[in-house]
Amino acid sequence: MGKTNRIRCVCVLLVTLLGAGLSARADVNIASVPLFLNASVDPNLVFTFDDSGSMQWEYMPDGPEFRFTIFMFPRPGGLYGGANYGNQLPSFRDDSLHNYFGRSANNNRVFYNPDLTYQPWANADGSLMADANPAAALYHPARPGLGSLNLTAQQTQVATWFRGNAFDSAFCDPCGGNHTYWPVTYYNYDGVGDVTVRASYTRVQITTATAATANFTSPGGVTRTRDEELQNFANWFQYHRSRALTSFAGIGQAFTRLPSNARVAYGTINQASTSVDGVATRTLVNGVRPFSDAVRTDFYDDLYSQVINNFGTPLRRAANDVGNYFERSDVRGPWNDQPGEIAGSDDAGACRQSFHIMMTDGFWNGPNPTIGNSDDTAGPVITSPSATSYQYTPVGPFEDGFSNTLGDVGMHYWKRDLRTDLSNEVPINAADPAFWQHLVTYGIGLGVTGNVDPTTAFASIPTATAIPWADPAATNPAKIDDLLHFGLNSRGGFFSASDPDTFANALGDVLESIIERVETSATSAATSAAVLQADTLLYSASFRSDDWSGTVRALPVDQSNGSVPSLSVGDCPPEVEWDAECVLAATPSASRTLLTHTGSAGALLDHGNLNATQQDALAHAADGTNDGRGEDRVNWLRGDEITGLRSRSDSGSLRLMGDIIGGTPQFVSNRSSGFQLLRTDFSPGTYPTYVASKASRPELLLVPSNGGMLHGFDASDGTELFGYVPGELLEPVPGEDYAPLSELSNAPYEHRYTVDGTPTVADVLIGSNWKTVVVGTMGVGGRSVFALDVTDPESMDAGTVLWEFSDPDLGYGVSNVQIVPLENNVFGAVFGNGYNSNNDRGFLFVVNIADGSLIAKIDTGAGTSTTPNGLAPVLVSDWPDGDFIGHYAYAGDLLGNLWRFDLSSPTVSDWSSNTISLFSAVDPDGDPQPITVQPRVTTNPKQPGELMVLFGTGSFFRIEDKDDADPQVQTFYGIRDAGASVTASIGDRDDLLQQEITYEAQVVALGATRTVREVSDNSYSAPSESGWYLDLTVGGVALGERVISRASFPSSSTRERVRFTSLRADGDPCSGGREGFIFDLDLTDGSQASDSVFDINSDGFFNTGDLVADKLISAIGGGFGEELTIIRNQEGSGDFFYDGGGNRIGDMGTPEGRASGDPVGRQSWQQLR
């Protein structure tokens, strides 16, 4: 099958129960993280430091104003460990232009700026070094042996001092003699007037006569005491005084944000010839290694102790040298999973991303790279595993008319496949379409500017607009434009900072953008197969496993072709209609409407509103200690950043939503459910009035997240209208003193599930009033079910929390509650009990929707402590009457039983006596097959009076489910149910018609290389065959394929076909951890279609052109086992279908024709009319 490494990898959906093992019993070993998360493919990053001589200088930018200046303070010998420039600097004479101009931050961007607060350098562990001692400020923090300067005392020192009143002239003051000065001296420009005139400045000086009570106010309004100002100046002197020192500060601080899994190498542009991992280099100090422990420490040591000689700036040679490094194909090279080692594999190199950041404070010189005019020369044709081809064609803004430039180097290592022996599976994104092994570069300038606007240059890429690049050999500004061209050609980035503070922040942004590129394309960021279609929008949920944050986005759908836009890299992409994470980040925490339950009633989420038990539990940290921080934990849950608790902004962005994995968002439409046709017991006559009244309310998107709550968003703009925190999260964990919220907010955080079940919404009659109610669950995050009145979602309060239900026989993993009118004349919530309940058996619960009281609890009797069991999500149907009343409920369990519960009697006590195991799912060896999905039902189109119950087997939430050493055969079933006439089990697979996968091949299909399958066309041979089955095997061999989501139907007027997906775990580090198939079969007998149902050749038609080897294709590789999202083609035939990431896979035919389909807004149960 084709690999599926995309911008967002897809998680399994709805009822997959990828949950956390929260039960102390652990009878069913529920995994604590999604099973599909493979080890991430860590990126390569080379950082090249400019160690040219100008980095010693204590002024910035370059210019004729500083033609005589090198330093601002006398330097000790060997300050940077190499050859120094002369000890030449302006004297402190107050009337000297060189003094007041050069010692003002308005002109000299590296000199002390009182508007800034200067921090010490960062240590490798992210902490800061000690503040400088004003009485002994070091000349170089990494070279303390060079001595220090007492900034509190007047100094007399020997240097080449000069003065003057014009930039082009200077006089000794004295040359090679003593000069006396106060070290803490700087000049604030007054904001008006000629910068060359002394009267335009105010001198600030701290001497022994300066009173301790004196205050200093900067031009920007920062006020400090004398000692504070002295300390700030001392920190600047010791850590930021020169281009090199302030670069070290900015780089060191920025790299604290880089995660330890990134593989980092350090280099310099003037590195002497050396060998790195067995290959000669003139740039690299070391090869890429994981940025943790000793490697991180070595990086900081190498950086801070960098030797700087008064050498030139051979940027092109350094860039070419790094590019050569990434062309290495030996086992010790950068694509290997153990770089530098003889052992290891380069399998992950197929999708490994590689980056190069090169910073400079000057203009390049030195030898040519001899690669020609690369950006004006077409590249080779490169093909991906999905049969996509790409060739670079010279076009604006990339091409120019010059050879051997930095831009040419960037293009040379971008447009070519640097490892032709590896599969081309590098993730693409909106900024970079390259799927082959290539190098993305970033150019960073410090105190240098060019003529081309970077924003204009990068904005020209989509339109192929030419940029008037100048010859970089001609002028210095053109050389800086060439640094921009370097980043542009490789689809990387560029910035040039005019001051050290901007440099540090911008470098941090570059590292963040690299992290985001990797996050949004690796398994650390996945889309929760939680895609929902409503009118012209797709809602797609996602999460990041690096910090377990998540979001949901509204994506516009092109109605003509079903396409959704490609998204830009990073948070808050502009192509979406809205992004919940971004909307939440802009919402004050105090203004959020958050609700919970105190055990007796609903309440607004406030520490003072909680009961005593909840308050005590929250006062305990996750280690059991009572730290009294309960109110802090509540405020953290509201979205506040709380010191000592889990950070919500480590990434640099505020992330307030938790991961969205097992639960699927649900759209709450304002349309009618048709209840005006209910019988008179349910006041159907008043329903149309209610439907009309809700037309003006905002439509909702309900989103469960493992950040501890069910969110209710305005579906049109993403505004959060409310959030609900189950009271169970505030109660003590069984056997402990702390609450689950204590674990959720703990730093460091270990993932746990909290609200992971799919909610259900429906209009219901409570008393004499119609209301809209949502029933939510905690999924594998807990053992509670709750209900909220969302009739007026903009006015939610404590009274809209209807109830929270728990029971000893209710376990983990409850999801997809059915809300349905019942024969006893009430609306009920019907659900299975999940797993790890107290008695380890399967139970069906029926709860009154009005108040949460228990109507019925039906024990299946299946399950023991040694063979623990539980009931999966339930499907309730109004068959055979089609009167909207729930008559039969169907659900599977871990022991392979398909249960049918008869709820058709108005006497509740009859329900349990009419329960049967309708069918036993067993594999060819007779072993039970687990049923974890919600069944689907529909009338048998070829046999009136029969119901087809459709479901697949398999599990992918238990720890052992990922072990495919000896996988069990799993199966998809279509079971015929004749209703009341069936009073006992119809048997097992021996009583069914068998279909099988008869052909499998890899072809180019739907625009990618995919595996396609043919399914047999067997017919029923006897009336006694009670349905059909299809084993998910090829040639009789089980490959670990299973069904973990419910089936679906085409958007047609009659249901004659069934669609379902399968999942197979994939350990390939370049895949999403899973691969899947999409099946389309006759729902009556499971046979292949009579016509083509997949538009294999993507020509817009379903005909013989879609045959493969003259075979009708019934299954095609795609997705990850998630439930299909299907949108009717409004301008042609068939359906568009999408994977869980909202990515359109292709077109599917509907042989029986098109129809209006179901109303938007999923019904909570299955009504058959």
Strand tally? 57
Q: Structural class, judged by helices and strands?
A: alpha+beta
Q: Specify the overall morphology.
A: elongated
Give the radius of gyration. Answer: 34 Å
Poorly predicted runs of 5 or more residues: 1-26, 521-531, 1151-1163
Strand percentage lies at: 25-35%
Strand order of the largest sheet: 15-12-2-16-19-20
Number of continuous helical runs? 15
Q: Helix share of residues?
A: 10-25%
**Overall pLDDT, averaged?**
90
Beginning-to-end CA distance, first to last residue: 40 Å
Task: Detail the topology: elements first, then pairings.
Layout lengths: L8 E3 L32 E6 L38 E3 L6 H6 L34 E2 L9 E2 L5 E12 L2 E13 L3 E5 L11 E5 L9 E3 L5 E3 H15 L2 H13 L7 E6 L5 E3 L2 E3 L7 E2 L2 H12 L10 H11 L28 E7 L21 E2 L5 E2 L15 H7 L27 E7 L7 H6 L16 H14 L3 E5 L2 H20 L5 E10 L2 E8 L4 E8 L21 E2 H6 L8 E4 L4 E3 L7 H7 L11 H9 L27 E3 L18 H7 L6 E6 L3 E6 L5 E6 L14 H5 L15 E7 L2 E9 L7 E5 L11 E5 L12 E4 L5 E6 L10 E6 L5 E6 L15 E3 L10 E5 L4 E6 L6 H5 L2 E5 L15 E4 L7 E6 L18 E7 L15 E3 L1 E9 L2 E8 L11 E5 L1 E2 L2 E2 L18 E9 L8 E9 L32 E3 L7 E4 L6 E4 L5 E5 L21
Parallel strand pairs: 1-21, 2-12, 2-16, 3-6, 16-19, 19-20, 25-30, 46-49
Antiparallel strand pairs: 4-5, 6-7, 8-9, 10-11, 12-15, 13-14, 17-18, 21-22, 22-23, 23-24, 25-26, 27-28, 28-29, 29-30, 31-32, 32-33, 33-34, 35-36, 36-37, 37-38, 39-40, 40-41, 41-42, 43-44, 44-45, 45-49, 47-48, 48-54, 50-51, 52-53, 53-54, 55-56, 56-57
Helix pairs in contact: 3-9, 5-6, 6-8, 11-12
